[in-house]
Tripartite ATP-independent transporter solute receptor, DctP family
Amino acid sequence: MFKQSALKLATIATVVGGALSYSSLVSAATEIKAAFNQSDKHPQYLALKDFGDKLAQETDGRYKLTIYPNELLGDQRAALELVQNGAIQMAVVANPLVENYDKTFRVIGMPYVYTGSEHQEKVFTSGALDELFNSTKKYGFEVLTAYTAGARSMYTKGGAVTSVADMKGKKIRVMQSDTMIKMLSCMGGTGVPMSQGEVYTAVQQGVLDGAENNEITYSDLKQYEVAPYFSATRHLMVPDLVVISSYFLNSMSADDQATIKRLAKESTPEEFKLWNAQIEQAKKVAQDKGATFTEVDIKPFQEACHGLQEALVETPAQKALFEKITALQ
Ligand code: GCU
């Protein structure tokens, strides 16, 4: 644990320190450092890498993307702050992190807001979110595009969860936002906010009864070892957002800005494909290591969360966004 944190600190120091000097290397390509909290096999890593290759090609090598996986630059909250203050240029962060800056974002990560992957892809690629994504400039970053992170389900130790009653008294890790805590309450349990990197140990040590996430993260981070009962509640399809520092974006020419924005958007359908292609394999890996996948009747959970959905759509901006999303069903 200590070693891992020391490694992260050393990496952050080197990377952030390096950012101060790169602009002086006039002839070299400008490096874009991107923070990512999962592995280099993850579909989002692969989509981002492909985006980086295309960016290098289309800008005649003026930009070079380097992705730092496995939370090497810190957890998502820390990474977003580094982007915000221009110490690094890009990051992939889950929607709840951005929602902490602007509550309008919570609409795109609410329980049961998408009917499935196709609906979500339509929303992400239709332009319906453009205005929202440009609106974060005032915080020092912009959202270039959204990636799918599939559907999230509960996983626990000690048995599957198939009803709201089964959730009673269960402490489940959630991502760090109020909506996520409320979401867990509407499902019948107690949400404990923390960063992804802490989940495995917290479940192992009994601080948590389980967590909720998609099959790929569940498998990739070996969380089946500590919480082997995966119950397909599919309660959330939280977008992951590709964010870029406004400071950095403004340092690019207008043409290069247009190129990076276009290529990021084009990488989204690619990421959906990569994502959907990895789900079954991820399940198989977990199953081979003893995990149990249980289908769940999601209706009672949907009904239990209906009131929360209504409560989360309060402001005119949230209402307009919600309508845009449902119109694309
Ligand atoms: C998913 C998502 C990540 C997020 C993680 C989490 O894996 O893709 O962006 O960090 O869930 O639960 O923290």
Observations:
- The chain has two domains: 29-150+238-279, 152-237+292-327.
- Residues 67 and 136 are 23 Å apart (CA to CA).
